[in-house]
Amino acid sequence: MTETYAVTVEQPDGSSRTVAVRANETVLEASERTERTVPFGCRTGACGTCAGRLLEVDEAGDDGDGDATDGSAGVADAFEYRREPRALKPRHREAGYVLLCIALPRADCRVAVGSRARRDLVDNPWK
């Protein structure tokens, strides 16, 4: 039996959906398999179009208490990458951003996608 993780994708319009992601597939691949794709551009972690922001990690699998966390756990607790995420600087990864085209989930979690989720990735001089 293949291990799966429940990744809830929060859309910019406030809607959400949960995708069962196999341990050997990315969030993008699982989304496409279920015909509910997330935004993407390159599939290699170079462009940042697929960047999402980690909102919550369900750590029930780690300690069995069923609690979720939304701050103490980071991207490294929820995902590992197939390759180096070139489109994200270390400060972005520390802030909870993840590239869904190359990210393999390792825990159930919630991730925001779309332009609102990515707004802090690029400095905007007009803010």
Figure out the total of helices. 5
- In percent, how helical is the residue content? 10-25%
Count of discrete domains:
1
Poorly predicted sequence stretches spanning 5 or more consecutive residues: 62-72
β-strand percent reads 25-35%
Q: What name goes with the CATH superfamily?
A: Beta-grasp domain
CATH topology: Ubiquitin-like (UB roll)
Task: Report the radius of gyration as a whole number of Å.
Answer: 14 Å
Largest β sheet strand count, sense and barrel closure: 6 strands, mixed
SSE ordering:
EEHEHEHEHEEEH
Strands, helices and their partners?
Blueprint (H helix, E strand, L loop, with lengths): L3 E7 L5 E7 L4 H7 L17 E8 L1 H4 L4 E2 L5 H4 E3 L8 H5 L2 E3 L3 E3 L2 E5 L2 H4 L9
Parallel strand pairs: 1-8
Antiparallel strand pairs: 1-2, 3-4, 3-6, 3-8, 5-7
Account of the 3D structure:
- This protein has 127 residues and is α+β, with helices and mostly antiparallel strands.
- The chain has a single domain, classed as Roll (Ubiquitin-like (UB roll)).
- Helix content is 19%, strand content 30%.
- The strands form two sheets. Strands 1, 2, 3, 4, 6 and 8 form a six-stranded mixed β-sheet that branches. A two-stranded antiparallel ribbon has the order 5-7.
- The longest helix has 7 residues.
- About 9% of the residues have low confidence.
Question: What is the gist of this entry?
Answer:
This protein is α+β, with helices and mostly antiparallel strands and 127 residues long. The protein is 19% helix and 30% strand. The strands form 2 sheets. Strands 1, 2, 3, 4, 6 and 8 form a 6-stranded mixed sheet that branches. A two-stranded antiparallel ribbon has the order 5-7.
